[in-house]
Design a protein that fits this description.
By secondary structure, the protein is mainly alpha-helical. It has helices at 2-22, 29-49, 55-76, 84-103. It is flat, with a radius of gyration of 15 Å. It has one domain. Helices cover 79% and strands 0% of the residues. The longest helix is centred in the middle third of the chain and has 22 residues, at 55-76. Helix 1 packs antiparallel against helix 2 (29-49), helix 1 (2-22) runs parallel beside helix 3 and helix 3 (55-76) runs antiparallel to helix 4 (84-103). The chain has 4 helices and no strands.
Length: 107
């Protein structure tokens, strides 16, 4: 259940960040309002997920996967340039998330 809430928090955070771009500096009403709605929902979901997930792991997953998804949306939807530096950066973020997650497990 907690990882489902974390996934919801990530999706809402990505939607909020996408609305930031769409709001054109808060000059468009609907995307501007949706920023607050999506980020509020994201933080609420993240807070509930933290009841059973370690904060270091949850925050790393939330921010890291959010960053990776936003980089993909930037390239796919907004036509941003995808270059080797961006790909390497996203892969490093994902690798860091995996290492943080694995460090919390005892074998």
């Amino acid at each position: 259940m907690s990882f489902g809430l974390l996934l919801l928090a990530i999706c809402l955070e990505v939607a909020g960040t996408t609305c930031m771009k769409l709001s054109q500096g808060f000059s468009r009403l609907v995307p501007s309002v949706l920023i607050v709605v999506f980020y509020g929902g994201s933080l609420a979901s993240l807070t509930f997920a933290l009841k059973t997930i370690e904060v270091s792991t949850a925050y790393a997953i939330w921010s890291g996967l959010g960053t990776a998804l936003i980089a993909g949306i930037g390239c796919w939807y907004f036509g941003e340039v995808l270059n080797s530096s961006k790909v390497a950066g996203v892969l490093l973020v994902v690798a860091g998330i995996v290492l943080l997650h694995l460090s919390g497990k005892s074998y």
